[in-house]
Design brief:
The chain has 281 residues and is α/β, with parallel strands linked by helices. It has one domain (34-53, 80-280): P-loop containing nucleotide triphosphate hydrolases (Rossmann fold), CATH 3.40.50.300. It contains twelve helices and ten strands. The chain has a six-stranded mixed β-sheet with strand order 6-7-8-3-9-10. 38% of the residues are buried. The model is unreliable at 264-281 (pLDDT under 50).
Amino acid sequence: MSVDLQLQDICFRYTGIGASDRMILDHITLNLGGAPGCTAIVGPSGSGKTTLIQHFTGLLRPSSGTVRVEGEDIWARGYDHTLLRRRIGLVFQFPEGQLFEESVARDVAFGPLNLGWSEERIDAAVEKALRQVRLDPVRFRDRSPFNLSEGEKRRVAIAGVLAMEPEMVVLDEPTAGLDPRGLRSVEELIEGLIDQGTAVVLITHNMDFVNDLARRVLLMISGRIAYDGPPAALFAEPTLLQAGSLEEPLFLRERAARGAHWPAHFRQAGSLRALLRIVRK
């Protein structure tokens, strides 16, 4: 079982410098975790995806609503956010820009070190995390992260999160800027996390990734969840794909080229609840 994360009626707007009356998140209610698997969050730029995931670990505080982990309000007095951020590992887009240590091993060890783990436990966690991201510890642990390829840098950054042994890993556009080899490497990494029982939440514009990896898809439009369900039903609804500025996955384009069509029950499953949400906005 993975961490049980519940968002109830979350609203958020920015205050202070650059404040706006526009709600970035508009009454979001969502349950995540509790079981391994991959949930994809998709939608057009500016729809609130990255803002949403920053609420998972308390990086942002909702303007209203509650975020609960195992039923406990993460904004209650005395709640341990350090423990929360170990249980839910958040990897931002282009995480390689956050590398700073003189060696790969020291960078990956940074999180566990700050958790107060023993040297033996840290060494074991670093080796395991590097192997998870397909980097040989013997070859890479003493190298400078700044002398690696862009794909290798990204894997080191992800390893730094995995070294803290999170129950849920949240990845914001992990494939951005990667070549086909890098794409496959990230896909294998996510598959490995799922196989070992880790819940994965994935923000992506890559619909082939969604088709291959996700068991659940959340489509966000204008700060609201317009669709929540299996990928097949989303892909069966052209109106939703267009509203979400989503490209059709390769398999769907191949079906269309052959003149094949979706079964009617897929289209119906994907349209009723989702389209009502869009119209209600």
